[in-house]
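Why does residue order matter? Because the sequence determines the fold. Keep that principle in mind as you read this record.
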Amino acid sequence: MDVSERAAAGKAARSKAPRSSHGEWEPSAGRADPVAILEAQADSRVQELLPIRYGRMSVSPFTFYRGAAAVMAADLAATPTSGLRVQACGDAHLSNFGVYAAPDRRLVFDLNDFDESLPGPWEWDLKRLAASFEIAGRQNGYRRGQRDAVLATLARQYRAAVRGFAGMRNLEVWYARIDEDAIREQLRNAGQKKLSAKLEKGAAKARAKDSLRALGKLTERVGGELRIVSRPPLVVPIEELLPEDEKIDVEGLLRDVLERYAETLKGDRRRLLETYTLRHVAHKVVGVGSVGTRAWILLLTGRDDEDPLFLQAKEAQASVLEPYAGASEFDNHGQRVVEGQWLMQAASDRFLGWCPVVGLDDVRRDFYVRQLWDGKGSTEVEGMPPAGLEIYARLCAWTLARAHARSGDAVAIGAYLGGGERFDEALAEFSRLYADQNERDYAALKGAIDSGRLPAEDA
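Structure:
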């Protein structure tokens, strides 16, 4: 179809899902128990780590929301959609955006979590993002009017950005990105001197967060050899996980894993990886919603012990969107995550790859691999003033629109949204209603913990 036909298709989608319909949310009589959804996820996870997951989710309604992507996926499946699909993040809450060092070593702002990525409706990502801002605003004690201003900014920016990308040439969309200079400019234009100073401090901290810093924080010397420190249950070296009465060729197993992972890298990056030697491996607890999935950190060294490379191999299970959006086209869920990241991010980690792994329990699992620390930094929204959260909402909305425009039809989505505020108002109403639902679900989690149904501990 040409541009005019694609725009017409987008406008026609309003008859299937009127823009005002996106403001609707009411749990059905048969809505699944949110605690039961979390329990179902637990079946494939490391059981000993589940108390940490539930403990982290129980801190606040926002931390619950971070870990409840599966709960919201089930809810979103019952909401109206336009029928226009994109490569969806699947878990696009505000804490899954941040800065990292692009291959050209500039700090860029982008989505940074793709564990749930799968083709699906663009509305699902946007609604999860918007609701996260409403929940964060409540946690920060914002007044209703202040929260509404943040939501209006987010919706307006997403709509304007999609419509802007619709008018660009394809390569222009593909190369578009936000770097640290663009963020500085936005803060200057908004007169946010305190936030500008905080940005500079955060950027310096992110630049310093690399493999050399990880070497100092995560390793020690044992008998003259570099070893990842043991801090159970959060960091556990692989030898501490081995059965005492079994001899396992761990070195051979890990060599095989690295070889299969290397096959997914481009030739130059595979050659670079070959210049490093594997020194040690440990299991590491990561995130909130991810706790219980298997995640390993691998220490490699290059020319000498002061030339480290830390990789993270993280288990990839089926996306929480899969029951509602359809199965992935990829047999390996690690590849699903990586392919989604390549599609949605403006610039991705050079060491991004995947592989299947047969574990110590002889069970095959899918993993994706990336650098552990590579200039990564996140924004602390706790205590952020409303004006700062508005700027952050603008950054996240533009970034999500760019990600969707790379894989979906920005012309059709932009035409569906239109130039008015009808969709914006509906999105804000949905966010308020779903934040109420999230509070009820959070209370259900706390009740399950208090009754002993779910174990929980601080970590």
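The radius of gyration is 22 Å.
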